[in-house]
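All the exercises in this workshop are built on plain-text protein records. A record pairs a protein's sequence with a compact description of its fold. Backbone structure tokens are a discrete shorthand for how the chain folds in space. Once this layout is familiar, the rest of the handout is easier to follow. As an example, a complete record with its sequence and its structure tokens follows.
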Amino acid sequence: MEHFIVSARKYRPSVFKDVVGQQAITNTLENAIENNHLAQALLFTGPRGVGKTTCARILAKKINDDGTHDEDEDFAFNIFELDAASNNSVDDIRNLIDQVRIPPQVGHYKVYIIDEVHMLSSAAFNAFLKTLEEPPKHAIFILATTEKHKIIPTILSRCQIFDFRRITVNDIKGQLAEVAKSEQIEADDDALHIIAQKADGAMRDALSIFDRVVSFSGKKLTRQAVTENLNVLDYTYYFKVTDLLLTNAIPEALLLYDDILSKGFDGHHFISGLASHFRDLLVGKNEATIGLLEVGEQVKQMYLEQSRKAPHSFLVEGIELANRCDLNYKNSRNQRLLVELCLLQLASITFEGEKKKTSEKRYVIPPSHFKNTRQTQSTAIKEPSIEKVPATAVTPITIEETLPTKSSLVEQDETTSNNTPQETRNNNTPPTPEIVIERPKILAESKAKRVSALSLKSIQKKQELQKEFVASKPDEKNLPKEPFTEEAMQTAWASYTKKVEQEGKFNLLSHLTMGVPKLEANLIHLVFPNSTIKVEVERAKYELLGYLREQLQNYDVDLSIEVNEEDVKRYAYTPREKFDKLVEKNPLIETLRKEFDLDI
């Protein structure tokens, strides 16, 4: 039995021209070698299996080959490969630095290839910095990694960075065809395309999958053998499901989905693949976007044929429904029901029977209803008339029994709503013309509070109520103006503070008892330490003033509220300040301190 060599090793490129999918990088490296413009520190970064280590080995061999050596010479003594995943300590880097000092015995350069360099520790990176920045002239470092973001910036700034990209499906398929031809294997184009898609841009993965499928199917590689071995859902299922959905064949679509599940495929994989299938059909509808189909020629014709039968609206709405099902799949407790419900909705898109009643815009009441009701209400409903309330004890108020509107300015009293007959509100009979109700006069102040200020009519009503309030004031000429003493004022002031205390207004009580009011003629002076207290007292000024006038029987009394920041109480915080306060109250404390020689 001969020793088997995997295709990834057997067909590894030995020259730059054999590297697949990285032409820009290989051309740059070849030109740098020819023009003697090669940096001494290179960083190869990119996904797995795209040729980073391969290019590093080709570069190491090419820079030492001056044409005088044998073609099979691999310069193994000049190439040192270090796996940073297992040699990531400071000691490993120090051993490497010691080797760098020794010049090569054969060739011109020593090449150090450090694979998975992102696995080095921070201390190892720092130990490597100086050598990487100023290496000997015979040393070249090639760092390879799949995770560039894990490398510290000081290393990145010292390297010339080459970003390797994922290999396209067509490039992988072409390389697989060359390998199959070399191995004398008959391979279908669709089979190679499925392997290339499964590899996800990595050539090494594609060759490994190729070896596995060849071991399963032998010398003939078919699409069916590849899908069966790789557990890939065959695209023919998607074409069958789409045909059933277009013809509204719901039972057959559900049976086909059951057949897919019975073969071990996941429902999430199916619904995401169906969304991608709809996307490919949408792409195939336009000649300009046909190139976006990453499929073989035979499958491309199938897509073009089915895209002609599928309406544009079906594909757009189908992608949205399938994508929504894909997003909700993991959170669903009954995942099979979720996919089946999605298939029911997809099959109902092109149904030409009864129109669907669902709509993206849902209204509780149709808009046409509001157009009709506005016209009828504008003729049948009138706004309540606003009349001035005379200053008499009893006022007749006219209320029309109509539906309340947003433009109502005066609210109806509870007595009015209780006196309204229930039958009139419930029946659709025409309202009675007018109902005259007599009720006690309401204070103009409370009315003014209830009137909104959101419309011009509201502002007009508020002005009318203000005039009414001014008109209803008692005549100031007939008010009492009895003389009083300061003692009487202090007594009335103390009486008001007790009233405030009984009402629970302790904040206002503390302000009013903060100082002693002083009387000057008919003017009571109040002095506060800051403007905040002044504002608080001014809010209760009219209530306080009204109480004092009534107690003193003199309506010429007025308040003067002032702020004097010099009157602010100073509080003792430090031990010295507290001692000074005590000395002010009792000077003998200072004598006591001196007598016993005490410290503060």
Remarks:
- Residues 354-367, 376-429, 432-449 have pLDDT under 50 and may be disordered.
- DSSP finds 27 helices and twelve strands in the chain.
- The first strand starts at residue 41 and ends at 45.
